[in-house]
Amino acid sequence: MASFTRRSIGFSRKEQYSKFTAWVVAILGAAIGVTLLVLSWTREDRFESARGAAGDVVRPVAVAGAGGRSTSQNLFGEIEAYFQAGSKNRRLEKDLATARVRLAELQAVETENRRLKELLNLYEDDREPIVSARLIGSTSSSTRRFATMSAGSSQGVERGMPVRSERGLIGRVLETGRNTARVLLVTDRQSTVPVRRAEDGLTAFAEGESDGTVRIKLIDLTINPLKPGDIFVTSGSGGYYSPNIPVAVVIELLSDGAMAQVLSNPAATEFVTVDPVFDPEASAELE
Description:
The protein is α+β, with helices and mostly antiparallel strands. It has a domain at 131-286: Thrombin, subunit H (Beta Barrel). The protein has helices spanning 2-42, 48-120, 280-286; strands spanning 131-138, 146-149, 162-164, 169-176, 181-185, 192-197, 203-208, 213-218, 231-234, 246-254, 257-262, 271-274. Strands 1-2-5-4-3-12 form a six-stranded antiparallel β-barrel. A six-stranded antiparallel beta barrel has the order 6-7-8-11-10-9. InterPro entries: Cell/Rod_1, Cell/Rod_MreC_2, MreC, MreC_beta-barrel_core. Residues 136-267 form the Rod shape-determining protein MreC beta-barrel core domain. Involved in formation and maintenance of cell shape.
């Protein structure tokens, strides 16, 4: 046990000497540093060469560090520019897609306006209508398509007279009562209306399909020049209908013509006008 105690004391003295030496060196180093600092402030010319030599020694490291910083800055700048360019490209693509949609909408509006102008210019008959009346009923579940209006023989309505709304042709009077009349709609299977394409006068027949549509049957079957959106109007042939009353617009092409949607839907029509027969003599021959 005594031997262990002596060894512990010896180790403690050695540790104390080491700590004392470290403190002495630290104090001397601090004193020398302070002395050199004071001298560098008061006698700058004495340390000019030393500072220059030290600068020369550390120059390669400083240049390398500066180059690294510059390279890293350029690299980070390029990376940032890359991601910013990608973000700008996505924004430009989105703006372009929006512009295309707006352009399509404007083109659709322009087309619709042009079509409406064509429709407004179609009515050229200066003759006064016989009477204006209200549609008070129409068939929708039957295979036949009729409507009833609130005007008859007492108001001057006669069999065969065309019936139309502000949008186009509804049909023609089939039977008359004193204050009501039965109208054969253009969509009935027994209805055939001579028509022409509004833009160039291409002739055809509009035959009712009893489902709200009409079948456009071309007279010349060698080629089908129709396209969706074509507007057909009455041609004036047959004697019943005056020319240029809107009838239907093409919605689907067929081998011998097209399917078309009537422009004046009786179900959405409240008031109609009754026109005089366009050519009584020609219509009488068809009876």
